[in-house]
Design brief:
heterodimer, A: mainly alpha, MetI-like fold, two-stranded antiparallel ribbon, 2 strands, B: mainly alpha, 12 helices, BP-dep_ABC_trans_perm (chain B)
Chain lengths: 314, 271
């Protein structure tokens, strides 16, 4: 399960009336409540990031991991890019994120529109989808590795129906492998996106649809002119969240292909992991990870801007 | 309002039901097969169910892994809530530069790739003697989930009317007292929702567990599963039995909290 949430404004159900004047104490005293988080995250989140940065400009191997590190400047970075590994990984990450995002967003919206109807089937289906989303990624990854295998369900169906003579190499072909893992990533994010889109659709007042029906609007026109405009703010936030989700994804790659075949599913974050924990070149792995972190910082800036715009629009 | 389900809607729903139903069905079916029946169309549904995979899976190692999973998940949930609940309340009730910076940092941390943080943490934990210990994994998971938990909890605290606290302070209650006896009870649904999510997420976490435990003997279930699925010559019925056993606690938690999850998940992301 992977979840990311936005710190949007307070839920619409409970408007918070402001009455600053009536407050007895200066509200900023409550900043003290942040102290445990500051201490904990300082030790176990920010300090590791500083170490990551230090390792990325040092020569660190398994032998010197807990010893002294030689400063090598940007050597790790240039090594990553000049060997072409980082560049290829960057390109693969782009393709991967694009596929996950398009499938995840379109699938999520389609599912939300279909599940907007009340009824037993919709209720059951929504619960089933959220359950699959809540399952550990290793479980989802395992079953899809099984279903997409040479003798798995999909190839069995393809072969017995006569559509193919040989099994499709879903997980061990250069191009199929990346697409297959991206598909499974999208498969898992669709329930979450559907849930969020659905909540936005439920906020549209029934009168709007009644008025549209009186005017003889078709189903497609309802989607085009009523539903799509009203989910636009949600779409922006979800878009960034889905991009980030695809970008930092590693669990399905780990379980289904472990970066293979060859380097076919080495996205940038996974490449950094392999360099550090399989090739024991912690310096190189850190440098690759720093590049990934910079990518995240850019996405975070875009995200913060879209949130601010959304909050100011309402 | 009458919602008529058109043919397109019905088609999408049918497709989704297949897409999400078949994998679940297949895990369960395969776990009851003998190795000979795993592949092939004829034996997809028509097979003699056997519990071999479960009998073989159920050994001391599985019970150890189950205990480890429970320990890590409950430990992480408790520790995360302990830190994130006050932090979320603090961020919900303050304005100004500090809380804006705090929020931005949490967003950035939440987006960090776990594959990037595992590298320096492995080194740091080696120095601090936290490698190969359950506490180390709990701490790492907690650091991973605090940003998520805090950001999701904050709107729940913002929804608690400040007047309630003002009334309490007029009656002479301290900020701390008002927090525990008024704010926390009002926001309990949010705390419960977030606690459930943190439990589910830490139950599935395996990257820290695989790297920080130096021997598979102390792996939790998710790490055991990750290790077996990337091995050569996978024993599929055994693996699926392990997957089912890993998922049963999730099913229990999910059944008890589905309504809360369904409504609570959308609070943070949608207005």
């Amino acid at each position: 399960m992977t979840a990311q949430l936005a710190p949007a404004a307070a839920p619409h159900t409970a408007p918070v009336p402001r009455s600053r004047r009536a407050r007895r104490r200066p509200p900023q005293v409550r900043l003290l409540f942040l102290v445990p988080a500051v201490v904990f995250l300082g030790l176990f989140s920010f300090f590791p990031l500083v170490q990551l940065l230090r390792m990325s400009v040092s020569k660190v191997t398994a032998a010197t991991l807990n010893g002294t590190w030689d400063f090598v400047g940007l050597d790790n970075f240039t090594a990553g890019f000049s060997s072409g590994q980082s560049t290829e990984a960057l390109y693969r990450t782009g393709v991967f994120v694009l596929v996950v995002t398009i499938l995840g967003m379109v699938g999520g919206l389609a599912a939300a529109i279909a599940l907007r109807t009340t009824g037993r089937w919709s209720g059951f289906l929504l619960a089933l989808m959220v359950f699959v989303w809540a399952l550990p990624p290793v479980v989802n990854g395992s079953v899809w590795k099984f279903l997409l295998g040479d003798s798995g369900l999909f190839n069995t169906l393809l072969l017995t129906s006569g559509l193919r003579d040989t099994p499709l190499p879903f997980l061990y072909d250069q191009y199929w492998a990346l697409m297959s893992v991206a598909f499974v990533n999208a498969f898992v994010v669709i329930p979450f996106n559907a849930l969020v889109f659905r909540a936005a659709l439920m906020n549209i007042s029934p009168e709007t649809f009644e008025a549209a029906a009186l005017d003889g609007a078709s189903k497609w026109q309802e989607i085009r002119h009523i539903m799509l405009p009203s989910v636009r703010p949600t779409t922006l936030v979800l878009l960034v969240l889905t991009i980030v989700y695809g970008f930092r994804s590693f669990d399905f790659i780990y379980v289904m292909t472990y970066g293979g075949p060859g380097t076919a599913t080495n996205t940038l974050p996974f490449l950094g992991y392999l360099q550090a924990f399989v090739r024991y070149d912690f310096g190189l792995g850190s440098a690759t990870s720093v590049v990934a972190v910079i990518g995240v910082l850019v996405l975070a800036a875009v995200y913060a801007r879209s949130i601010r715009r959304e909050e100011s629009e309402s | 309002m009458k919602q008529t389900a058109g043919p397109a809607t019905t088609a999408i729903k049918a497709l989704l039901t297949l897409m999400y139903g078949v994998p679940i069905l297949w895990i369960v079916l395969t776990s009851f097969k003998s190795s000979a029946d795993v592949f092939g169309l004829q034996s997809s549904f028509a097979f003699r169910p056997v519990t071999t995979a479960y009998v073989e899976a159920f050994d001391g190692a599985l019970l150890t892994a189950l205990r480890q999973s429970l320990l890590i998940s409950t430990g992480t949930t408790a520790l995360t809530l302990l830190v994130a609940v006050p932090a979320a309340y603090g961020l919900a009730r303050t304005t100004g530069r500090i809380s804006t910076i705090g929020l931005s940092l949490l967003i950035v941390l939440q987006m960090m790739p776990q594959t990037a943080t595992v590298i320096p943490m492995f080194q740091i934990f080696g120095n601090w003697k936290l490698l190969d210990s359950t506490l180390g994994v709990i701490i790492a998971d907690t650091a991973l989930l605090i940003p998520f938990a805090t950001l999701l909890l904050r709107p729940f605290f913002r929804a608690v009317p400040p007047q309630l606290e003002e009334a309490a302070s007029i009656d002479g209650a301290s900020i701390l007292r008002a927090f525990f006896s008024i704010v926390l009870p009002v926001a309990r649904n949010g705390v419960f929702t977030v606690g459930t999510l943190v439990f589910l997420l830490s139950w599935g976490e395996f990257l820290y567990a695989v790297n920080f435990f130096l021997a598979p003997g102390s792996y939790p279930l998710s790490a055991l599963l990750a290790q077996q699925v990337s091995a050569f010559g996978i024993n599929w019925p055994g693996l699926m039995a392990l997957a089912v056993l890993t998922s049963i606690p999730i099913l229990i938690v999910f059944t008890g909290t589905y309504r809360l999850l369904r409504d609570g998940l959308t609070v943070g992301a949608v207005k």
